[in-house]
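Suppose you are handed a protein chain with no further information: no name, no annotation, nothing but its sequence. What can you learn? This example shows the usual starting point.
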Amino acid sequence: MTKRHLKRLSAPRSWKIERKAHTWVVRPKPGGHSLKDSLPMLHILRGMLGYADNRREAKRILNEGKVLVDGNVVKDIKRGVGLMDVIEIPVTKQRFVVVVDRSGVLTLKEIKTTEAKSKLLSIANKSIVKGGRVQLNFHDGRNMLVDSETAGKYGVHDTVTLSFKDQSIKHHVKYEAGALVFVTRGSHRGEIATIKEINKIRSPMPNVVTLEKDGNTFRTIEDYVFVVGKDKPLLSVMK
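A reasonable first move is to predict its three-dimensional structure. Written in structure tokens, the prediction is:
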């Protein structure tokens, strides 16, 4: 049985919460993002945005359809919201994207109206399904079927921009040398850097990526990077 609550002292360090003020915090429901990579909607409305003072007010806001995540109305206070998810509050004309800051904490960055019409998705892996079609599996748990001819141009760790209006891919950025990436974990988390070299390792160990920023180079594993653009970031907040 899925646990409904979580002790604040045991909550992921990626959550910015007061850990000793109260005993419990709401646990996000299982979804596309892992527990440590997602925030419950209640905490976003109450603890981060200050739109609600308590659980009842947050539930009222959601029940009135005032909050959208990735273009869809959300009415569950336990809905998990994670990396690169887009939150929109039409009443206040505010739009946010979920990112990781330099401390490794999930935070919200306000974005432009045009940027809130789509979402960046990293391809976690690809799989073959019945009929010979290829399924792209993304970092947030969603997937998309593409024909075998089209599938060849998409690689693992590539990033696409998904339009909320018609659920189609608008942009595609390859995971390759020269691409801009957002570092999600490690000592350089929260930074934007350029891929200098991808080092393939023939072992169970993850591949290593050499990155460059402001003339300095550093290395991290490829699972810690998220491609966000080629010549410039696809989101203006990532500078």
